[in-house]
Amino acid sequence: MPGNGTSKGTILVADGNEGIREPLVELLRMQGYKVIAVADGEQAFMELCSQPVDLALLDVMMPGRTGFSVCRAVKSRLETRLVPVMLITGLGKGEDRIQGIEAGADDFLNKPVKKQELLARVRSLVRLKRFTDELENAETVLCSLARSIEAKDPYTEGHCDRLSRYTVSLGVKIGLADEQLVSLRRGGIIHDIGKVTVPEYVLLKPGPLDAAERKIMEEHPIAGERICAPLKSLRDLLPIIRSHHEKQNGTGYPDRLKGDEIPLAARILQTVDIYDSLTTDRPYRKALSQKKALQIMWEETRRGWWDARLVDALQELLQESPKAFSVA
Fold first, then answer.
1. What is the DSSP string of 277-293?
2. For residues 165 and 184, is the Cβ–Cβ distance under 8 A?
3. How does 263-293 read in b/e, with b if 16+ C-beta sit within 10 Å?
4. Where are the beta strands (DSSP E) in 173-268?
5. Bridge partner residues of 11 (DSSP)
6. Is the CA virtual torsion 150, 151, 155, 157 positive or negative?
7. pLDDT at residue 137 above 50?
8. Residue, of 211 and 128, whose pLDDT is higher
9. Measuring CA to CA, which residue among 78, 48, 72, 77 is closest to residue 60?
10. What pLDDT, on the 0 to 100 scale, is given for residue 3?
């Protein structure tokens, strides 16, 4: 047990049988863990939703909500889905383990619980949670960096958060899966992270860029991809970061991709990025109306710049919900 008063982690133990629950609690506390003990599934879920927990040990057959039910609910919430869940069961049927896997359980332990096996698995899962937290912290730093870049220019205030909302709305409109929507939401925040490498005299220049300045600006998607590539959790975002400045006719940058060579997620973000740029104030003009912005986007689509299917979906979405893309 640690001698400095610090905890190795916080573990929730949920079991309706006090004779089983209390020895588990005592064992884990002796090992230096902070333990939250509850007697039923509903209490377990409420505790997991109300405070940080590094591991949940859930009895499968609890009063009220079963361990399967709690696990499924925890894994379906964005805020708790990364909390490791170990199901403790006296059931020996293979279908029960399958049900647990389908609910999202990270590990299983059979009753009667063996002390050394329990502690080994607890150490492993708590360590995994710490690694996950480190990745989340790294992502938080990148998101803060992206917002700091945006904050340099008063004309782009709120741009990242709007794109995060807008891309998800358009993704829902065209029927994308939940995991793709998550990538779009995150991509909306950090798509321009590579601008951290662009000098301010270029980034904030009010007039047109000269050839040398444009070359510098066109490198930022590559820089952004390079910054985010080491984080495996951001792997799905790399195509968005690298390709959101490509054009359908191959005149975009950095890779001069054409048509469907441009990843769909990048085309979605690109579509709402253009719309947001047109409908917010810029140093060289005031914000355009929704009607005028769409008119310009269709003109540029006919030139071969944007994906007509996505511009059409955007227009339909705006007709259905006129305030969906309003500046908050």
1. HHTS-BTTBPPPPHHHH
2. no
3. bbbbbbbbbbbbbbebbbeeeeeebbebeeb
4. none
5. 35, 55
6. positive
7. yes
8. 211
9. 72
10. 43
Q: How many CA atoms lie within 13 A of 234 on its CB side?
A: 28
pLDDT in tens, 304-317: 999 999 999 999 99
Q: What is the pLDDT of residue 161?
A: 84
Contact status, residue 204 vs residue 188, Cβ threshold 8 Å:
no
Q: What is the pTM of this model?
A: 0.62
Distance CA 55, CA 53 (A): 6
Q: Which domains does the chain have, with CATH numbers?
A: 10-132 (3.40.50.2300), 152-320 (1.10.3210.10)
Provide the token pair at 246.
Answer: 């490509």
Q: What is the DSSP string of 22-40?
A: HHHHHHHHHTT-EEEEESS
Report the pLDDT averaged over residues 171-177: 94
| Dihedral of alpha carbons 243, 249, 253, 254, sign | positive
Helix (H, G, I), strand (E, B) or coil at 32: coil
Q: 230 preceded by cis ω (within 30°)?
A: no
Separation between Cα atoms, residue 100 and residue 231, nearest integer Å: 29
Q: Are 102 and 90 in contact (CB under 8 A)?
A: no
CB 30 within 8 A of CB 1: yes
Query: Which amino acid appears at position 306 of this protein?
Result: W
Give the 3-state secondary structure of residue 12.
strand
Query: Which pLDDT belongs to residue 1?
Result: 43
* Cβ-based neighbour number of residue 23 at 10 Å: 12
The residue written with tokens 């959101």 in the block is 244
The answer to whether 113 touches 15, Cβ cutoff 8 Å, is: no
Kindly list the strands in the beta sheet with 55-59, ordered across the sheet, starting from the edge strand earlier in the chain: 34-38, 10-14, 55-59, 85-89, 107-110
Which pLDDT tens digit goes with each residue over 229-286?
Answer: 887 778 889 999 999 999 999 999 999 999 999 999 999 999 999 999 999 877 667 8
115 is catalytic: no
Give every CB contact of residue 175 below 8 A, 6+ residues apart in sequence.
Answer: none
Catalytic-labelled residue, pool 8, 129, 195, 247: 195
